[in-house]
Amino acid sequence: MSNLLSDISKQAKIAKNVQIDSFVTIQKNVVIEEGCWIGSNVTIMEGARIAKNCKIFPGAVISAIPQDLKFGGEDSLVEIGENTVIRECVTINRGTNYSGTTKIGKNCLIMAYVHIAHDCNIGNNVILVNSVQLGGHITIGDSAIIGGLSAIHQFVNVGKYCMVSGGSLVRKDVPPFTKAAREPLSFVGINSIGLRRKGFEHKKIIEIQDIYRILYQSKLNTSQALNKLELEFPVSDERDEIINFIYQSGRGLMKGYKQ
User: Does any domain span residue 148?
Assistant: First the structure.
């Protein structure tokens, strides 16, 4: 149900049971599906696609145009998956003609004051803690957690099930299943607690640890380590996830920690 104090375009497509509080602005070319709650003073601009049962807290701005001087007014989108929670004063910019869409997955928690720039691709079950700042074209894999006040450089990839320490400056790619901390950002182990909480068996966690010992502690270069992994480790989803991530890395991997 919409509030009479809100400014809602008649060209927006809003399901009947969406709750909209006071002083909300919703522009044309917006779709909001069933069961959503839109808190007071939220602004939802053209190109937003918000799936079922999302909650958007006061002061958030969804689908503003990119902060990119190359943006030429082209049509683009922000897509937000089901059951995602967006807390106070979050800003999410829509895509550019690079990809056309900024994507947020299902069941995410985007805490207060987070900024998600154009063409980012955020997986399912991701947590971005307060005041995380994402540059453009960033990919974050499923079930990753980014600690508060972290800043991630444009085009960086963060793998699945990662844990990035609060206050981090993330300039390089963070491979799957790892923990990242210190300055400069470094590998500090695998996210074993997070993996156990997500149902990974002990044997699988040990396999992932063994893979990262080769990558970060064997004194092999990256090409040599990858060759060793492909020759000596049995094929598995986790092994292939790590190997493929490294092959596709555009900015290079975070380094191992050195005393």
Answer: no
